[in-house]
Amino acid sequence: MTFKADLAGRKILITGASSGLGAHFARVAARNGGSVAVAARRTDRLEELVAELGELGAPQAVAIGLDVGDGASIHACVADVVAQLGGLDILVNNAGIARSGLAIDQTAEDFDAVMSVNLRGVWLMAIATSRHWRDTGTPGNIINIASILGERVSLGTASYCVSKAGVVQMTKALALEFARNNIRVNAIEPGYFETEINEGYFETDAGKATIRQIPMRRIGRFEDLDGPFLLLASDASRFMTGAAVPVDGGHLLA
């Protein structure tokens, strides 16, 4: 049997969708027939995105306020998505932040903030959605947005590296546990892409040096993530779980 990498009929929740990769994944899902719930703290941006998603072909598109650092907000979000979309098939765990600077100069509050969003928030979202799928007896699909910095390190991003390494291991551990409930868990590990988190960095001398370390000698373009995203979101990956897919121009090889 041949499967198309389309999302027709799928109901997809994307966290951290007010900008960057989250907003891009929402557009990809809409173009490929998915119904999309975009969630973030900046709801003003979400309303503009929802209108765009409808124009791109999403049968349904809704905006939901979400703070992944708040357990009550997470549970309310999942319930709201199920109610508004009539169900939930895919969670894209995309919300993330960074605190730059040498670890020795970081405060405990800096570290806690990164872990709260990048690691704890991903965990709580995965647990909340998986309990819904378990309790309703429906299959589920989680795509965690990790990073190649979960497998390598860079100067001045220690807490971010630690959090993303945790996401990679979480992906594998939850995949093992959740398989019995027909829930798949995979991750995408983007290399260097320009987003709000690193805006302007690649114009600096340090940023240009980073690009020279990438075998393909360029940073990623958002559309470079479309294929891996559609693979993991669709039935084309129906026998994949616990995988972490790097999309980095070969950076992990360097």
Keywords, please?
alpha/beta; 254 residues; Rossmann fold; 7 helices
SSE layout and pairing:
Layout: E1 11-15, H1 20-31, E2 35-40, H2 43-56, E3 61-65, H3 71-85, E4 90-93, H4 108-136, E5 140-145, H5 158-178, E6 183-190, H6 205-212, H7 226-233, E7 244-247
Parallel strand pairs: 1-2, 1-4, 2-3, 4-5, 5-6, 6-7
Helix pairs in contact: 1-2, 3-4, 4-5
Number of helices: 7
Binned strand content: 5-15%
Work out the count of structural domains.
1
Rg, alpha carbons:
17 Å
Shape: globular
> Helix and strand succession?
EHEHEHEHEHEHHE
CATH class category: Alpha Beta
Description:
The chain is α/β, with parallel strands linked by helices. Helix content is 42%, strand content 15%. The chain is built from seven helices and seven strands; from the N terminus they run βαβαβαβαβαβααβ. The protein has a seven-stranded parallel beta sheet with strand order 3-2-1-4-5-6-7, sandwiched between helices. Strand 5, helix 5 and strand 6 form a beta-alpha-beta unit. Helix 1 packs parallel to helix 2 and helix 3 packs parallel to helix 4. The protein is globular.
